[in-house]
Amino acid sequence: MDIIDSVDVDAWETFVTGSAQASFYHTPHWHQIVACTFPNFSMAAKKFVFEDGACALMPLVKTEKGLLFKKKIRLKSGVLGVEGGIVTNRKLSAEQENRIYRHLTDTRASITIITNPYADYTLPDYFKIENDFTLVIRLPGADQPPTINFSRGAKSNLKQARKNDLTVRTARTVRDIDAYYSIYQDTLKRWGDRVLFTYPEKIFYEIFKLPEDLMKIWLVEHNGNIIAGAVIFYFNEIASYWHASSLRKYFSCYPNNLLQTEIIKDAAQKHKLYDMGRSGNQKGVEQFKKSLGAETFPLLHGVWKYRWK
After folding, report:
1. pLDDT value at position 247?
2. Is residue 303 assigned to a domain?
């Protein structure tokens, strides 16, 4: 097995573009955004080339802490809570998969991997493993109504939203990003102690620099005021819902039902799946996604800790 430790960004992009398993979170674009936003993260993807021609890529970021002789290194595949894991040009054998994990644990780094829900690779039993899932809508296709899989309640809420003079568009200017971030601050206050992680303002501006075929920041307006929004990534066959915010005072207008309907309608033109992400044990969020027709795709969250001998 040949190992490429410093994967060229262009080669990385070409490889994941050729794999239907890969979402935006497997691309160098996502890892560049993370590394630019968080200076303690650096891109560290590895490529593995096997004797039979099979190839695998493991997207990774690296963090380092401590002094030279007691430096703590961590490799993460699946950063900021999204999926990572092995991407391949063809199905690997169990032995080939195991060789990848053995190499990673030989690097003197602690390893965290959130597996890819679109590939049936698992984690070795010497990892500490938690079962989890992401919620995914199988998109209906451009010739079908976006509401085809909605529950009766979701359709009723959408009907109410359409009566409230709401409009949906995508962000066009930096001022739109300013408005979205302001709504995010309101959302954080509402969630209080339930917030698991807070994103800095910088990450939204870095995302906004991406071309529109990879990203759209969707916004809902009421009388010209932005009241809700969502950040969606696009890659290969998968649209990925990364982040959303909304103002509490407009909940009775059901802006998120209208927003998600327009996102699904748009994504169905080119994509087959809409990954609405993990719900962080928030039952209300999970139920909302399921009301739109989302189903569970299992994944694993695994940790292996390196210990000095």
Report:
1. 95
2. no
Of 270, 221, 285, 268, nearest to 247 by C-alpha is: 221
More confident residue, 71 or 111: 111
Co-location of 120 and 140 in the same domain: no
Among 93, 126, 159, the domain boundary falls at 126
Q: How open is the CA angle 157-233-156, to the nearest 5 degrees?
A: 5
What average pLDDT is seen over the chain? 94
304 within a domain of the structure (yes/no) = no
Cβ neighbours of 296 (radius 10 Å) = 14
What pLDDT is recorded for position 172?
A: 95
Helices (H) and strands (E) in the chain, counts: 8, 15
Which amino acid type is present at position 63?
T
**Structure-token pair, residue 35:** 């590394």
- Integer CA distances (angstroms), 300 to 116, 274, 285, in order: 8, 19, 20
- Residue partners of 181: CB distance under 8 A and separation at least 6: 201, 204
Domain that holds residue 199: 136-298
Among the ranges given (161-170, 184-193, 243-252), the one the predictor scored with the smallest mean pLDDT: 184-193
Do 110 and 74 contact (CB within 8 A), yes or no?
Answer: yes
**pTM of the predicted model, to two decimals?**
0.94
- Same-domain status, 69 and 16: yes
Q: Quote the CA–CA distance of 153 and 146 in Å, as a whole number.
A: 15
Tokens 């679109």, located at residue: 118
Q: Does any domain span residue 308?
A: no
Phi, psi of 286 (to 5 degrees): -60, -45
